[in-house]
Amino acid sequence: MNIVCLDMEGVLVPEIWIAFSEASGIPELRRTTRDEPDYDKLMAWRLGVLREHGLGLKEIQAVIARIDPLPGAKEFLDELRALTQVVILSDTFEQFAKPLMAKLNWPTLFCNTLEVGPNGEITGYKMRCEKSKLTTVKALQSCGFDTIAAGDSFNDLGMIQAGKAGFLFKSTPQIKADYPGIPAYEDFPELLNAIKSALN
User: Fold this and answer.
1) pTM
2) Which residues are annotated as catalytic?
């Protein structure tokens, strides 16, 4: 039995931190897992920038409420979910993702949780498990699933390389150059066709 594992940000929806960077006028917050492979380092730095500017969860959620899925993402996901089981594996947080999941017709999402103080300050975060995407893919495989994965960033490479098939989608020129053996696609119809081929 197959299960498709998809990254969320950059694949199905715009990068939340980039959108918040633009809305808040803080260019440093544009940095994502496409730029920094060490997620803990990236998040510690982000939380430091938020503290410095006195920004918290409420301000980020206000920006997220205005974000729509990437054009074609919902239709892609609807068609894919009609073909096979799909789970979204993301290093985002429950407090960020919920309004976006509503716009994508509530697909299954495995992600992490923010620790938020009474005043709305984001004080920390709790990862679901270590190397959450690769760990989850291995757990699914141990349950008898063949996994097919697609993502765009450094933190997706483990799950992409561990399965029956894996694809880069809307990735960076650098990641595509560093991993020439991974098929790379830029639009949803191409990715859907590649996944359909892998399902057979």
Assistant:
1) 0.91
2) 7, 9
